[in-house]
Amino acid sequence: MLPVDCPHPDAAETRRVCVHLLEALAPDGDVEFYQRFTGTGREFELRCAACHAGGGGADVPLRRLCERCCARVQEAGGVFGVLGVEGRPGVRERSPSRVRFVHERVALPTPVPDLATTLQPIGGSPACAFVALTRAGGFVRLDADRGVVEPLCHLSPDARVDLDKPVDLHVSPEGDLAAVANSHGQFGAVVHLTTGRLTMRLARDTYHIAHSRFPLAFFRRGDRTLLVHATAWNRLDISDADNGRRLTAREFVVRPPLRLPDHYLDYFHAGLAVSPDRRWIADNGWVWHPVGVVTSWSLADWIGGNVWESEDGPSKHALCHRSYFWDGPLCWVGDRTLAVWGYGTDDDWLLPAVRLFDVASGEETGWFPGPEKGEMLAAADAGTLLSFSGEQGTSVWDVATGDRLLHALDFRPHAYHPGAKRFVTLFPDGVLQRSTLSAMP
């Protein structure tokens, strides 16, 4: 039996663990536990099933351990060692806050039509401009700097996109191309927004597509606009978005019966996100039973020579696992740091929080409590995270400390432009609001 007292009394941060879990660390022990948050910051306790069933009174035999020794208990339990999570961590509010939102309203000379998609930023430009698709099938460009709505081309029926069902829209960094597909459908297309020409037709197979967003992500490489897109439930490819030429051609080698081909990937691809420096990509997909698994790998290595990088390349990492939860909010907060919503390993126990991962190493570098389920995440810069939704308003978070710098409950924007660093809100009376985060003197 291991000693019940931690040998590191000078630790800066400690946790309380029931004595039975320490005993279970012995060889052949069965480490399963409940994680109970106290409501004070990130402080929590680990309790075995018996201590948890006892109601958590003062007679529970708890021992205080340093964070490193507590991590040993959690690691011994693994992904499925957590029996449940109770309580909630406490959000740290920074007071006084030195940031605020500055709003400016302008009347639009032309009303925004009824939209089938959310506003998508033209991310490669510092101008605050967006593209959206209307329910009538027309693309429009919203220039929030000038307060102008401009019609673009019309979506061809050859795109095979059903506008009566949910639609996802992605806009190229230069704003000249758009990829559109039914969110959980089989088909889509890439459209040249000036001419309306279909430069690519997109298709994936139908295996469980109702449970995964159509994977799409633009990025620039040299003077070319490239698109990462699904070509099967367990396969992604990179194509030249201007002409559809496949850049990651590969074929599985057929093996004897009951043996899967080399590089075979038992993973359902879903929502994608490319890092700001265009060197990394994150995938928000899942595996059976089902378990959501956020993965990442090097775009540079994938297009640089290893066509199997997205399947099992050296740079690929499984960052976190969550039973019955995938395609949740995530965003990049730096060139190699990915912020993923949700603390925990099961959809029933996910707590409102953000976890941070270094995609180069695959290691989790920290986490902090805060954003609620359903809030969108965006990076104001490498050190500041934004979360916003129609119910929770908008919050600003310090990534390094986890402090909430500002919570504007009555500020519910529709879109954020990462280049211009502006929020846009559309009002029914034809008024557009531009909002900027500003530091007070």
Key attributes of the depicted protein:
441 residues; mainly beta; Methylamine Dehydrogenase, Chain H; 2 domains; five-stranded mixed β-sheet; four-stranded antiparallel β-sheet; 5 helices; 32 strands; 7% helix; globular
Quick check: average pLDDT? 92
CATH architecture of the largest domain: 7 Propeller
Which geometry do the CA atoms define?
A: globular
- SS-based class: mainly beta
- CATH superfamily (homologous) name of the largest domain: YVTN repeat-like/Quinoprotein amine dehydrogenase
Counting DSSP E segments of at least 2 residues, the number of strands comes to 32
Q: Level of helix content?
A: under 10%
Radius of gyration, CA atoms, in whole angstroms: 24 Å
Given the structure, what is the number of helices? 5
Instruction: Tell me what portion of residues adopts beta-strand conformation.
Output: 35-45%
Would you kindly provide a brief summary of this structure?
This protein is 7% helix and 43% strand.
Would you mind describing this structure in some detail?
With 441 residues, the chain is mainly beta. The protein folds into 2 domains: 14-86, no CATH class; 99-439, YVTN repeat-like/Quinoprotein amine dehydrogenase (Methylamine Dehydrogenase, Chain H). 7% of the residues lie in helices and 43% in strands. It is built from 5 helices and 32 strands. It has a 5-stranded mixed beta sheet. A 4-stranded antiparallel beta sheet has the order 6-32-31-30, with no helix packed on it. A 4-stranded antiparallel beta sheet has the order 7-8-9-10, with no helix packed on it. Strand 27 and strand 28 (393-398) form a beta hairpin. The longest helix is centred in the first third of the chain and has 11 residues, at 67-77.
